[in-house]
């Protein structure tokens, strides 16, 4: 296990202890990414409202893994399959918005979401065609807009 993996594991385990949660932490490196999977009962507090806590932990883990450098390894933190479930919900919402844009010709603004979630939607709709996406607003109300692709 690399030093970065050790530091990330230690950080996540300390946070779980602070929440008084009993969970199994698995850390693995694939290429230049460190993947952290947390399994246990009742990880809702660790995930947080709308994923806010797990996003913050992921950001901290990225900083720890990179030892303060501008570009460290990418770190992905998931708890109880939350990221995959949330990705599927976001992709469904993106498809519904894109279909509405195509049928009405009018832009559709999605609810405010984190930068991580906006990226999921941007990436998903990039391959779809017929629509474009962009972010508007200021954090924490920054949201994504799905608009007709400008055919000019």
Spatial shape: elongated
Sheet with most strands: 3 strands, mixed
Distance between the termini: 52 Å
Q: What order do the strands of the largest sheet run in, or round the barrel if closed?
A: 1-2-3
**What's the order of the H and E elements?**
HEEHHEHEHEE
Radius of gyration: 18 Å
Helix content: 40-55%
Strand elements, count: 6
Q: Please state roughly what percent of the residues sit in beta strands, choosing from under 5%, 5-15%, 15-25%, 25-35%, 35-45% or over 45%.
A: 25-35%
Report on the architecture of this protein:
It is elongated, with a radius of gyration of 18 Å. By secondary structure, it is α+β, with helices and mostly antiparallel strands. The protein has 5 helices and 6 strands, in the order αββααβαβαββ. The termini are far apart. The strands form 2 sheets. The chain has a 3-stranded mixed sheet with strand order 1-2-3. It has a 3-stranded antiparallel sheet with strand order 4-6-5. α4 (82-104) crosses α5. It has helices at 3-18, 44-47, 52-65, 82-104, 115-126, and strands spanning 23-30, 33-40, 74-79, 108-112, 131-136, 143-148.
How are the SSEs placed, and which strands pair?
Elements: H1 3-18, E1 23-30, E2 33-40, H2 44-47, H3 52-65, E3 74-79, H4 82-104, E4 108-112, H5 115-126, E5 131-136, E6 143-148
Parallel strand pairs: 2-3
Antiparallel strand pairs: 1-2, 4-6, 5-6
